[in-house]
Write a structure and sequence with these properties.
It contains 14 helices and 13 strands. The chain has 375 residues and is an alpha+beta fold.
C-alpha cells in the first residue's frame, strides 16, 4: 500500500475556554448569549459546551500550521470580542485557578447535557475543566485503528507537555494537569486498549451501547478515538493551552506522530503493546509532574528524565515535521517551554506574583496574549 499524500493529513483543533468576569475574574454564565452573538468565519465554529461558563471553538480544517495559527488566533479574538460586549473575557486554562463548581451556573440547557447530569450526577457538576482536542485526517477507517494503537504509548508525553491546570477550587493541587485527574473519572475516559482491527473496535462500541454504558459513540471520552463526525483521529488528552503557539505546537507534534505511525502501519512494522497498568502509571506521572520530573518510557519500561522522554518523541516525529516545513515553528515553541516551563509552571509563577484572584486571572490572560485589553 503506498504512503498517503501529505494533504490527506489535515489538522483541526477544538479549544474549550472559561468565561470570566472582566472585573472579578470569577466564572460567568453567559455562554449561550455570547455564542449567539459571535460571528465565526465560514468553516469555523463557536459553540456552547457542557457548562454555562464554558465555550468551545473549532478551527478551520487546515493543511499548513500557519493557517491553523491564523484560524485559532482569529477564533480567540472573535470570542473575546464578543464576551467583552457583556463585560466578560475568555480564559485559556485547563481549570479555573480559584472558582468552585457550585458557582459555575450548572450544565448548559440541552438534552444531551441534561442527560449526563441525570446519569452521572455530581461527576457532571464537577466537570469544570477545559481541554484541547486535535483532529488529524486519517481517511482509511481500518488504518485509523492501527494508527490509534501505535499512538497510545505517547499520550502521557502529550499530557506532560500541555499541562496547564495546577489549581482546583483555589488550591494548588501539586499536579501539573489536575484536569487529567478530574476528567479521567468518567467510566469511558482514559487511554483505550489495543484493538485487533476495525471490527474489534466496532464490536466494543456496540457492546458498550447494548449495556447502556454509552448512548452514542460520542460518549467515548478516550484520550484518542476515531472521531464521530469526521474522518479523523481525535486526540483529547491535552489541557487547553495558555497560548495559540502552544496549541499549534501540540497539533504539529500530534499530526507528525500520526503520519509517522501511519507509515509504520502501512509498512507492516510491529506495533508496540504496552501493558495497560504501565500506561496508567505513565499517565498519572505525566499529570502529576508535567515536565518537572521523570516520565515513564513505556517502551523501555524505565523511569527517565522528562527531557529525555520528550526528546525521544521529538526525534521520532522530526522527519515528518521537516518534510512539511513545520520543524522551525514547532521547535521554537518547544524551546520556549524547555526554558520557561509548561503552562502549569507559568501559572504557579504568576500566582506567586498576583495580589488577588482577579489580578491572577488578568495576568493569565496577559500571558496568553489576549487580544482585547482590559479596561
Amino acid at each position: 500500500m503506498p504512503a498517503a499524500p501529505l494533504e490527506d493529513f489535515t489538522v483541526g483543533v477544538e479549544e474549550e475556554f472559561f468565561l470570566v468576569d472582566v472585573e472579578s475574574g470569577a466564572l460567568r454564565t453567559d455562554a449561550t448569549d455570547i455564542v449567539q452573538r459571535a460571528e465565526p468565519p465560514d468553516g469555523q465554529l463557536i459553540e456552547r459546551e457542557l457548562k454555562r461558563s464554558q465555550v468551545e471553538t473549532g478551527s478551520a480544517v487546515c493543511v499548513g500550521l500557519d493557517d491553523l495559527r491564523r484560524s485559532l488566533t482569529g477564533l480567540r479574538a472573535e470570542l473575546d470580542r464578543t464576551a467583552a460586549e457583556v463585560g466578560a473575557r475568555i480564559l485559556a486554562t485547563g481549570t479555573h485557578p480559584t472558582a468552585h463548581w457550585i458557582g459555575d451556573g450548572g450544565v448548559t440547557p440541552a438534552p444531551s447535557y441534561e442527560l449526563l447530569l441525570d446519569i452521572y450526577g455530581l461527576l457532571t457538576d464537577e466537570q469544570v475543566v477545559c481541554g484541547c482536542h486535535i483532529h488529524v485526517g486519517v481517511l482509511d477507517p481500518h488504518l485509523a485503528i492501527d494508527v490509534m494503537n501505535r499512538c497510545r504509548s505517547w499520550v502521557p508525553v502529550l499530557i506532560a507537555l500541555s499541562a496547564n491546570s495546577p489549581y482546583w477550587l483555589g488550591r494548588d493541587t501539586a499536579y501539573a494537569s489536575y484536569r487529567t485527574e478530574i476528567f479521567h473519572r468518567w467510566p469511558t475516559a482514559g487511554i483505550p486498549e489495543h484493538f485487533a482491527d476495525r471490527a474489534d473496535y466496532e464490536s466494543v462500541v456496540e457492546q458498550l451501547r447494548e449495556t447502556e454504558a454509552i448512548d452514542t459513540p460520542a460518549r467515548l471520552y478516550w484520550d484518542i478515538r476515531p472521531s464521530v463526525r469526521y474522518p479523523t483521529l481525535e486526540f483529547r488528552a491535552s489541557d487547553t493551552c495558555l497560548t495559540v503557539d502552544e496549541s499549534v505546537m501540540v497539533a504539529g507534534l500530534v499530526r507528525a506522530l500520526v503520519e509517522t505511525m501511519h507509515a509504520d502501519a502501512v509498512a507492516g512494522r510491529p506495533c508496540p503493546r504496552p501493558r495497560p497498568e504501565l500506561l496508567r502509571a505513565a499517565l498519572w506521572r505525566a499529570a502529576r509532574f508535567g515536565l518537572s520530573d521523570g516520565l515513564i518510557d513505556v517502551d523501555q519500561h524505565q523511569l527517565r528524565p522528562a527531557s529525555e522522554v520528550l526528546g525521544t518523541l521529538v526525534d521520532l516525529v522530526r522527519p515528518a515535521l521537516e518534510a512539511r516545513g513545520d520543524w522551525p515553528a514547532v521547535s521554537a515553541t518547544l524551546d520556549r517551554i524547555r526554558r520557561d516551563g509548561t503552562g502549569a509552571d507559568r501559572q504557579r509563577r504568576l500566582h506567586a506574583e498576583a495580589d488577588t484572584s482577579a489580578d491572577l486571572v488578568r495576568r493569565l490572560r496577559h500571558a496568553a496574549g489576549s487580544t482585547i485589553d482590559s479596561p
